[in-house]
Design goal:
The complex is a heterodimer of chains A (about 300) and B (about 120).
Chain A lengths: L2 H12 L5 H11 L3 H14 L4 H13 L3 H14 L4 H13 L3 H14 L4 H19 L38 H4 L5 H6 L4 E5 L4 E4 L2 E2 L3 E2 L1 H8 L2 H11 L5 E8 L2 E6 L5 E8 L4 H22 L1
Antiparallel strand pairs in A: 1-2, 1-7, 3-4, 5-6, 6-7
Helix pairs in contact in A: 1-2, 2-3, 2-4, 3-4, 4-5, 5-6, 6-7, 7-8
Chain B lengths: L2 H10 L4 E8 L5 E6 L5 H23 L3 E8 L2 E8 L3 E8 L4 H15 L1
Antiparallel strand pairs in B: 1-2, 1-5, 3-4, 4-5
Helix pairs in contact in B: 1-3
The chains are: A alpha+beta (about 300), B alpha+beta (about 120).
Chain lengths: ~300, ~120
């Protein structure tokens, strides 16, 4: 263990609220110690769920773990918290490049240059992307069977450790970016999620399953308990002059919950293990709400 | 000035926080408060306690865990509730732009100090 890592670990142990976890997590990641890096990042996120740098750090660790979808979500969260975050723009550019979406990669790299002017990694990657786009434009239209040709090799150096590289960012991901990644109807994927429950105003389950540890099915019981939550939340928000309620997030020792109302007569609950940061649960719930609305319209 | 009052004043010093209070978990009676004039403390205590209790019941059914930090986000502001020891709830109301992370952090500190 390097002295730097040892020193930062000691500093964090002495003061768990210290932001040194950001540098410690990055140092562990660069040293290839991904499990401790993930642990440090998650602990930091638990304490600072709205700190863009914490989400950015965790996204980089997830990329090293090859969990690109979760990394996308983390950078998406980063940009919701800080739309100009260069590191998140940079990371998303990398993911779009890997997916062969050069136009989106370029858009994120251009956004990254605004926050990280003079960053050689970003400028180099942007030049590569522009070159590939120009090549693609100059190329004759391919025959249908060659359209799905392999994307160019990703500019891996975007994610490589670079001193000081404390931030390494990407651009504003559109709200629908998650949907762009899959050809499968998102509503189907989201609504089949174990841990998601859609209930009506009378506490009847419309969709979803919920199992406690040990496989005990509790969906119907929870649905019944949720009856009236929406009305109660609305009443509290109105009487306290907070406007219309949008979401309820609840942490327990064993799970993180987010509740939202797809319609005035329904309530959606998404439950995740406490290892999943609340910001990610909220993003998942927002997507599930959209899917639930479509499902309700189709089922009407 | 009591230590409870000092802790609540520290919370209301956060930009966007309109009020903070400690209430009895069972009946919603206000124990200590630091509230801006436009907030009706009795209603805040009653509504927050009731909402927290209802959600805790659902959470217990779902995961078996006891309720911790609760965050109601609305279009014009937010309500936060956190247990503060076995008998009290810490309730905070904030504007739309309140820093949720900072508020949560400060509430955790106050709840630990009170508990």
């Amino acid at each position: 263990m390097s002295d730097d890592i040892r020193g930062m670990s000691a500093e964090l142990a002495a003061d768990p609220t210290s932001l040194v976890f950001l540098r410690l997590g990055e140092a562990l990641r660069q040293a290839g110690r991904l499990e401790p890096a993930a642990k440090v990042a998650l602990q930091g996120l638990t304490r600072y769920p709205n700190l863009p740098e914490a989400h950015d750090l965790y996204a980089r660790v997830l990329v090293d773990h090859q969990d690109l979808e979760s990394a996308f979500d983390e950078w998406d969260t980063t940009l919701r918290l800080d739309p100009a975050h260069g590191g998140a723009h940079k990371g998303l550019a990398f993911l779009y490049w890997q997916a062969g979406d050069l136009a989106s990669a370029k858009r994120h790299l251009e956004a990254a240059t605004a926050d990280l002017p003079g960053d050689r990694q970003v400028l180099s990657a942007l030049a590569k992307v522009q070159e590939k786009l120009a090549e693609a434009e100059a190329r004759p239209v391919p025959a249908p069977d060659t359209v799905a040709s392999e994307p160019p090799p990703p500019p891996r150096d975007l994610l490589a450790p670079q001193p000081p590289a404390p931030r390494f960012e990407v651009e504003d991901a559109p709200a629908s970016a998650g949907a762009e990644r899959s050809a499968t109807p998102m509503s189907d994927q989201l609504l089949e999620d174990d841990g998601l429950l859609l209930v009506d105003a009378a506490g009847m389950r419309l969709l979803g399953t919920l199992d406690r540890a040990g496989g005990i099915a509790v969906a119907d019981r929870v649905a019944a308990e949720l009856a009236g939550v929406s009305k109660e939340a609305n009443r509290a928000a109105r009487l306290l002059a907070l406007g219309e309620w949008k979401s309820l997030a609840l942490e327990t020792g064993t799970a993180n919950f987010v509740l939202a109302a797809p319609t005035a007569e329904t309530l959606l609950l998404l439950m995740r293990d406490t290892a999943v940061p609340m910001g990610r649960v909220a993003i998942g719930a927002a997507r599930a709400v959209d899917a639930a609305r479509r499902w309700l319209e189709e089922s009407a | 000035m009591s230590s409870h009052q000092e802790s609540l004043d520290a919370l209301t010093a956060i930009p966007g926080v309109r009020g903070a209070m400690l209430t009895n978990r069972l009946d919603g009676i206000v124990v200590a408060e630091s509230i801006m004039e436009d907030v009706e403390s009795g209603a805040l205590a009653a509504l927050a306690t009731s909402l927290a209790r209802r959600l805790e019941t659902a959470a217990m059914a779902a995961s078996g865990g006891t309720a911790g930090f609760l965050h109601l986000q609305a279009t014009a502001g937010a309500l936060f509730v956190s247990p503060a020891g076995p008998d009290l709830l810490l309730v905070v109301i904030g504007d739309k732009g309140v820093n949720v992370g900072r508020t949560r952090l400060e509430m955790t500190r106050v709840a630990e100090a009170v508990g």
